[in-house]
Write a structure and sequence with these properties.
heterodimer, A: mainly alpha, MetI-like fold, 2 domains, B: mainly alpha, 11 helices, globular, Sugar ABC transporter permease (chain A), Sugar_ABC_transporter (chain A), membrane (chain A), MetI-like (chain A), transport (chain A)
């Protein structure tokens, strides 16, 4: 920084310090040497701050305008009876909508389904993703092919993948439908949920694996060698050496995937459209809003989902401690 | 010794094959369906007995699909360009400058990365209706930029931190102007990062379904994933399966090409942004 400040900073100081000297400048005594070094620095510092804020402003404004304002607006909408089919009946009803939603069994069914999908898929993905990460990281042959093909599920449009699974499990068009049963798996609740989870796991395991692979790359090779020389088995090396080093990466991956899984929508929409009680919370919020045109109830669900996600995130961040992404930013630079 | 390495290689090879099969089966299945004739569509065979391009001809003959494809490409490209530009500005500031509110910005982008998008659907639906943005390109571009920005900021600041900025100083010492130093030295170094980020952001916009289905109502701005779910085939009574599969393949091809050509970059982009914040 100080080296950077010499030519440009001196200019600024020449015409800047006299008019806009802050309290801190005034406090610096008139020792010429000291002052010359300090004043341009802080002037430069101020220019740097201004530039930093200026550069971040557009991104910050867009993000806040499209998330913060609408979420507050949806809190406001959730306190009203507001059905677009009966706009005349719009009125302020306080927490009435929350009572309606929270005493509704469809909501709790959807909530249960979402939780089930989240817990099962994230758990399975953690195991599969770890395996895939190890394969991508350590395989002796065909690393490029493995990495490339693993990226395909990540990149593919979820709706496309969902259609592929739907046709695969539909009797007639499918190659899987008659493998396990004679019936149509997508018309029964348990098998539908299993297929939804399968589709989710297929689609997002690679992402999990990539995040975990980044953690794997941090494991020092020497450490593994040393453990190996000391007679540690492969499993011991994995649990005693790799896992501790990878812990922050694992937590990040779990957090992102948990919150992502909680938003499950595309797969359910295409696979079952929510039939047989397979709706997720996103699905019923969407149905109430776009199909039912009930803004009040839809917004209430939006707010409840937001609160749930915030709670999940809060729990994770508590677990993170200092490992939270971005928390070490002060020192870096 | 040689024996154990071949055995190890074989073992890894088998695992590799398992991964490849796992990853590719659904893709190959939908491709196979897209090339089948209506008569053989239900034979459940992986390799079509009769090959046909009829499904592709059908979808490109319908306005429904072509229009959606144009929407998808246009919306995703515009959103990508804006998100990468705004993201690059913010990421430069985060990685190079010291200013108040930096941590806040990082925190906010992290929050948005985790934000449940469905929570925005109801308010945005109402707000966009009032502003006349509902069912327009900007109506989709805005939320896409918003949710792509955290991704862009994280990935780009990770890239920017790796750039040897001293080179800029060195170039200026050698007599280059600020603009020249930027154009000749920094821009080429930053380009791979920008490009990688652009791919990731594009994939995100290209994939979106929830916003696209909630904030559009006509062909004017409907994107392909949504059009797919409304597909009815050439006539109302025709089975749309073949057409849906063909359309699905068309929108999958660009992604597969990206992945094939830029695998290394995508991996580094996704991982660098994630672990070190």
């Amino acid at each position: 920084m100080s080296a950077n400040a010499t030519p440009a900073g001196a200019d600024v100081a020449a015409d800047g310090t006299d008019t806009r000297s802050t309290g801190r400048h005034a406090a610096v005594p008139a020792q010429r040497n000291n002052r010359r070094r300090k004043a341009p620095l802080s002037e430069n510092k101020r220019a740097e701050r201004r530039l930093g804020l200026l550069l971040c402003a557009p991104a910050a404004l867009v993000m806040l305008a499209v998330t913060a304002y609408p979420i507050l607006y949806s809190v406001w909408l959730s306190l009203q009876r507001y059905d677009l089919r009966f706009p005349a009946e719009r009125e302020f009803v306080g927490l009435q909508n929350y009572v309606t939603v929270l005493t509704n069994e469809f909501w709790w069914t959807a909530f249960g389904v979402t939780m089930l999908i989240t817990v099962v898929t994230v758990a399975v993905e953690l195991v599969l993703g770890m395996g895939l990460a190890l394969i991508m990281h350590r395989t002796l042959v065909g690393r490029g092919i493995v990495r490339t093909s693993a990226l395909i599920p990540y990149g593919i449009v979820t709706v496309v993948a969902a259609f592929s699974w739907r046709y695969a499990w539909t009797p007639g068009t499918g190659y899987l439908a008659n493998l396990f049963s004679d019936g149509a798996p997508l018309t029964e609740r348990a098998s539908s949920l299993a297929i939804i989870m399968l589709a989710e796991i297929w689609k997002t395991t690679p992402f999990m694996a990539l995040l975990l692979m980044a953690g794997l790359a941090l494991v020092p090779e020497d450490l593994l060698k040393a453990a190996s020389t000391d007679g540690a088995t492969a499993w011991q090396r994995f649990t005693k050496v790799m896992l501790p080093v990878m812990k922050p990466a694992i937590l990040v991956a779990l957090l992102f995937r948990t919150l992502d899984a909680f938003r499950v929508f595309d797969n359910i929409y295409v696979l079952t459209a929510g039939a047989n009680d397979t709706s997720s919370v996103s699905m019923i919020a969407y149905n109430n809003l776009i199909r039912g045109l009930n803004l009040g109830i839809g917004s209430t669900m939006s707010v409840l989902i937001f609160i749930t996600v915030a709670i999940i995130a809060f729990i994770f961040v508590k677990l993170f401690g200092t490992a939270a992404p971005g928390s070490d930013d002060g020192e870096r630079r | 010794m040689a024996d154990t390495t071949t055995r190890a290689k074989l073992r890894w090879g088998l695992l590799d094959v398992a991964v490849v099969v796992f990853a590719l089966t659904p893709v190959l299945w939908i491709m196979s369906l897209s090339f089948k004739t209506p008569a053989t569509l239900t034979d459940g065979k992986f390799i079509p007995r009769e090959w046909t391009l009829e499904n592709y001809r059908t979808i490109f003959a319908t306005d429904q699909f072509v229009r959606a494809l144009i929407n998808s490409i246009g919306i995703a490209l515009i959103a990508t360009v804006i998100a990468v530009v705004l993201g690059a500005m913010a990421a430069y500031a985060i990685s190079r400058l010291d200013f108040p509110g930096k941590r806040v910005l990082i925190g906010v982008s992290l929050l948005i990365a985790m934000f449940p998008q469905v929570s925005l659907v109801s308010p945005l639906f109402e707000i966009e209706r009032q502003l006349g943005l509902f069912d327009t390109w900007p109506g989709l571009i805005l939320p896409y930029i918003t949710f792509a920005l955290p991704l862009a900021i994280y990935t780009l600041s990770a890239f920017f931190k790796q750039i040897p900025w001293d080179l800029e100083k060195a170039a200026k010492m050698d007599g280059a102007t600020q603009a020249q130093a930027f154009r000749r030295v920094i821009a080429p170094l930053a380009a791979p990062g920008l490009f990688t980020t652009a791919i990731l952001v594009f994939i995100f916009c290209w994939n979106d379904f929830l916003f696209a289905i909630s904030l559009t109502s006509t062909e004017r701005s409907r994107t392909v994933p949504v059009a797919l779910s409304f597909f009815t085939g050439a006539s109302q009574f025709e089975d749309p399966t073949g057409a849906i599969c063909a359309a699905a393949v068309v929108i999958t091809v660009p992604i597969i090409l990206f992945v094939l050509f830029f695998q290394r970059r995508i991996v580094s982009g996704l991982t660098s942004g994630a672990v070190k914040g």
